[in-house]
Write a structure and sequence with these properties.
349 residues; alpha+beta; five-stranded antiparallel beta sheet; 12 helices
Length: 349
């Protein structure tokens, strides 16, 4: 289990409904819905001047926006208190803590509908899960001013939660809370939760990813210089960079080209190793950032709920579950949001 962490600056029904009947959780109206309300999104609609909002309509819109933001922050605060309660009263040794990331995957494939700061995985909150029966038993004895009896202690230790299945089972009930976490982390308002993917990993693994991304960001100047030397872009695929490199290194080989120099040959080689060596410690997506031994797990919504493959807890009533936003960790918001916006700009280019 993880050691206690100070909030230092780091850089926080089980039955599955069919997709057709699942409710869509949004923070404000979606772009598609707004286009439908204004008569479609065709070429004619694009050139049609937008009607000016009346003072009353503007006031109503602002009021609705403020109400949505207040509700989102309330959900975040409620979950934060529940998170602290479980961790403080249950103890980290008897619970499991993870980092939950989300990514927007629009079904339409329309770039206009991509939420920029969620073009790639965006870490939004910490998740804690614990065995509710063990938690309630521990709280009972604590309120009575008693230590947990020896026989009960053994029972509590054996009742360990199966973290990933438990989180996957609980998430469908907490979509509004996840939407709220994404809102306070990145300001995303138009979020169709039916188009959101989930990813999970433990805290130690997440720290590896954050450190790797921070290292990439700090060395951006070196990467750009290396890319310029090779005539490629920093964000090009490794396979494309390798193809260019092979051609350049062959042309710059002193044994094949008497007009070149050993220094130029070495410079090309070093530039390539700097750019593509990132694959040893970081990938092009958050899922690939850091050491390959990371335990980042994308959660398939098709497997939400209880499945025969799950072991351990299978009843939502047996799981204590809560989330805490990652806003207290500055590097998460600044590094990841900035990075994802750059990815979104590249996608639209």
């Amino acid at each position: 289990m993880f050691a206690a962490r100070a909030p230092a600056k780091l850089a926080a029904s089980p039955a599955r409904a069919s997709r057709a009947s699942r409710a869509v959780v949004t923070c404000g109206a979606s772009r598609k819905a707004r286009r439908a309300q204004t008569g479609g999104g065709g070429a004619d609609a694009a050139t049609k001047p937008k009607p000016a909002l009346s003072a009353a309509n503007k006031a109503a819109r602002d009021k609705a926006r403020k109400a949505a933001a207040t509700k989102a922050r309330g959900l975040v605060s409620e979950q934060g208190k529940a998170y602290e309660k479980i961790v403080n009263e249950m103890g980290r040794e008897a619970s499991r803590e993870y980092v939950l990331s989300v990514r927007h995957a629009p079904k339409s494939g329309n770039a206009e509908d991509v939420v920029g700061v969620m073009s790639d995985w965006l870490p939004v909150c910490e998740v804690v899960v614990a065995d509710r029966k063990a938690y309630e038993a521990q709280m009972f004895f604590k309120k009575q001013g008693m230590s947990v009896p020896e026989t009960e202690t053994q029972t509590l230790e054996n009742a360990q939660i199966e973290g990933v299945p438990a989180v996957r089972m609980m998430l469908p009930k907490y979509e509004q809370h996840v939407a709220a976490m994404a809102f306070v982390m990145s300001g995303v308002k138009d979020l169709n939760m039916d188009e959101v993917e989930y990813g999970l990993e433990d805290w130690g693994s997440f720290e590896v990813a954050v450190d790797a991304l921070a290292a990439q960001t700090n060395q951006r100047g070196k990467f750009e210089a290396a890319a310029k030397l090779l005539g490629v872009s920093v964000d090009d695929e490794p396979s494309d960079i390798k193809r260019v490199y092979r051609k350049l290194i062959a042309e710059a080989h002193p044994d094949r080209n008497p007009d070149t120099t050993q220094e130029k040959f070495n410079a090309i080689k070093d530039a390539y190793e700097l750019l593509c060596g990132r694959g040893d410690t970081a990938g092009t997506t958050f899922e690939g950032l850091g050491d390959h031994r990371r335990d980042f797990v994308p959660l398939d919504k098709g497997h939400f709920g209880v499945t025969s493959a799950d072991k351990g807890q299978t009843d939502p009533a047996s799981v204590a579950f809560a989330m805490r936003t990652l806003t207290i960790y500055d590097r998460v918001g600044t590094v990841f949001s900035t990075r994802n916006l750059k990815i979104a700009q590249k996608q639209k280019a």
